[in-house]
Design a protein that fits this description.
- The chain has 4 domains: 59 residues, no CATH class; 104 residues, Tetrahydropterin Synthase, Chain A, CATH 3.30.479.30; 88 residues; 31 residues, no CATH class.
- It is built from 8 helices and 8 strands.
- By secondary structure, the protein is of the alpha+beta class.
- The strands form 3 sheets. A 3-stranded antiparallel β-sheet has the order 3-2-5, covered by helices on one side.
- Helix 3 crosses helix 5 and helix 6 packs across helix 7.
- The N and C termini lie far apart (174 Å).
- The protein is rod-shaped, with a radius of gyration of 53 Å.
- Strand 6 and strand 7 form a beta hairpin.
Length: 300
């Protein structure tokens, strides 16, 4: 009797355990009965018929990603390797979940086929530079074609990101040389413009310096002339000497001051025959040369 009760209890526990379905968050359990779909169980603790119902599949509703590598050729005949990251998820609707489980046998392989087809139709229409510049166009083309083909099977394409564009090694080397040459040219242009600006600014500064120097010299001469004028007038008034004689005295004084300044810091200064006013110098040199020539002729 007790053995029978124990057997029944054990059988009841086993039956109860087999009827439980525990599903994680963002997952859906697909229930089959003798190989036929009979229902879905959402996240949490749910139940099914023991012994005849089985959890055939658990479909994730989380966003997943698949990386697809495609090698194709551009319009300007450059071989290029492109990597596309496709982000997708299963739509949270009963029919979409059922379609995602039963309609496609190998979803990831079929995704790759669609990406290959889309890129090999789009890239050959563009040159290599256009592929780099219009990467968004490639992404939109891949996403559009995938969405149109896959959404009927319950999948939503969230993004199709072109994460890498890698041309042939020789092409990359040539591109690097072009970029380096372009940067060198731009640097030379900037340096030339900077040198031009420096020269213009230096010329403007020199012109301004000379203008100020000329103005200073003119002001200095005006001050000297006015000082001489005042001094000569005062000296003539106090002594009764004519202004012409006073002017002559001032000239001689300036002459000797200049001579002293010239010889003060230079021991190599040589003074030739001259006068304070410069009169008769040319005549004296001419007479000396004539006399020298006559002496040479007589000696001959």
């Amino acid at each position: 009797m007790l053995i029978g009760i124990a057997i029944v209890a054990v059988f009841g526990i086993i039956t109860f355990c087999l009827s439980l379905v525990i599903t994680s968050q963002k997952e859906v359990a697909v229930i089959q009965r003798f190989g036929k779909f009979v229902g879905l169980r959402r996240s949490g603790l749910t139940f099914k018929m023991p012994f005849i119902d089985w959890v055939a599949y658990k479909q994730s509703l989380r966003i997943d990603e698949i990386s697809v590598d495609v090698e194709t050729i551009t319009k300007d005949k450059v071989s290029v390797h492109i990597t596309v990251a496709v982000q997708y998820y299963v739509e949270d609707k009963d029919q979409s979940i059922i379609n995602s489980v039963y309609e496609l046998s190998d979803f990831k392989r079929q995704i790759k086929s669609y990406v290959f087809d889309s890129l090999r139709a789009e890239v050959p229409r563009k040159k290599l530079d256009e592929v780099y510049e219009n990467k968004e166009d490639l992404e939109q083309a891949v996403k559009g074609q995938l969405s149109e083909a896959i959404e009927s099977y319950g999948y939503i394409i969230q993004n199709a990101l072109v994460v890498d564009i890698d041309p042939d090694a020789s092409v990359k080397e040539a591109m690097n040389r072009i970029n380096a040459a372009t940067r060198d040219k731009r640097a030379a242009e900037e340096e030339g413009e900077a040198a031009k600006i420096r020269k213009v600014k230096a010329a403007e500064a020199e012109a301004e310096s000379k203008r100020l120097q000329g103005k200073g010299t003119a002001d200095q001469r005006d001050a000297i002339i006015n000082g001489f004028k005042d001094s000569i007038g005062a000296f003539s008034k106090d002594t009764g000497i004519k202004q012409e004689d006073v002017m002559r005295f001032v000239e001689i004084t300036q002459y000797f001051d200049t001579m002293r300044e010239m010889a003060k810091d230079n021991n190599n200064v040589i003074f030739m025959p001259h006068s304070a006013t410069g009169e008769g110098i040319i005549e004296k040199f001419t007479a000396a040369n004539v006399s020298s020539d006559k002496l040479k002729n007589n000696n001959v």
